[in-house]
Amino acid sequence: MALSRLSVSNLRNLAHVDIQPSPAVNLIYGENGSGKTSLLESINVLALGRSFRSHKIKPLINESAPALTVFGKVSHSGTEIPLGVHRPRIGDSQFKALGAPVESLAELASYLPLQVINADAFGLLVGSPKLRRQYLDWLVFHVEHEFYALWRAAQRCLKHRNSILRRGRIGEGELTPWNLELASCTEKIDSLRSECFERLLLVLEPLLKEFMAVDGLKLSLYRGWEKGRAYQEILQETLPRDLKQGFTGSGFHRADIKIRINGQSAADILSRGQQKLLVCALKLAQGQLFEQLTGRRCVYLVDDLPAELDEKHRYLLVKWLNILRTQVFITGVEVDPLISPWSDQNQEVKVFHVEHGEITSED
Ligand SMILES: Nc1ncnc2c1ncn2[C@@H]1O[C@H](COP(=O)(O)OP(=O)(O)OP(=O)(O)O)[C@@H](O)[C@H]1O
User: Fold this and answer.
1) Which Gene3D superfamilies match (predicted)?
2) Of the four listed, 82, 128, 296, 320, which is most buried by Cβ atoms within 10 Å?
């Protein structure tokens, strides 16, 4: 699975870009503010309908243009899937796959699975549980087809339940249908998440050994309510508290991956550098497990690699990206620190230079 063509119009300072990336390694260098991150952002927009810098696409439209367009072709098992995103300044975004409008952003996301390693990704460890939940759900979404429908149904129930709770006065039996459906979806979501998580731990183990020399590191899944209890029971038991707060306090929406070192939160113990290495290992494990379970490979976007990792760990990340045999796009200000880790990896490397939003291939 690789992006074989990328064409961008009017996304930030990228007026017109049309490149044919390498199916393996793409190194993008240029001065600060030249447009490197914008190029990665355009791939993110194509894959997910949004940027990794902001949830809104509008600020991405070039300030003097009426719309932005990103078009790409994803090659997979000898076929090519055309994808397109068009966002006018006034009006709604249009997303297309295989020449037709997509039904949902979830459908769009299924065509080009992406992993992003950038300064924000390093917040995975220290950020809110939502980020770690999203990390796990990315995997569950891509490998378990029933997950998305379950997750949507559970969100809908939660919304209804919360609006009844907020109202305060509850008619007899009013909560019952929502509780029942919420509990049924929640238990299924939990079991899909737990299964993926167990598999993830197996893949993560060898990566952690290489990336982190830290004893006592342990990852565990908190499912969002008390261990060993049925969720339905919890909903009954916590009703007085939920009523007081006006929302449902326990459930799939509270799940988290707890990362601890000898019982203490890893975020409080690890250095900033170690946190980055742990996040790299987590991201690599996700790509590796994704391939094991689906036979597909995700594309990695790595923004400003030399600024984020020292030389030794840049080589280590490259070694593992090479093992994954996945398509990568890596940016940096200087070209040499980007190229040198790949010199003996026997991969098809393409180098792109970005200057004032213009991109030239150096092959
Ligand atoms: N809507 C917009 N219209 C036009 N230009 C924009 C818009 N949004 C941002 N820019 C400009 O686009 C340029 C590219 O930014 P980008 O973040 O891609 O640079 P970069 O090469 O990754 O830089 P750095 O190395 O500093 O991270 C910047 O100069 C920015 O000011």
Assistant:
1) P-loop containing nucleotide triphosphate hydrolases (3.40.50.300), RecF/RecN/SMC, N-terminal domain (1.20.1050.90)
2) 320
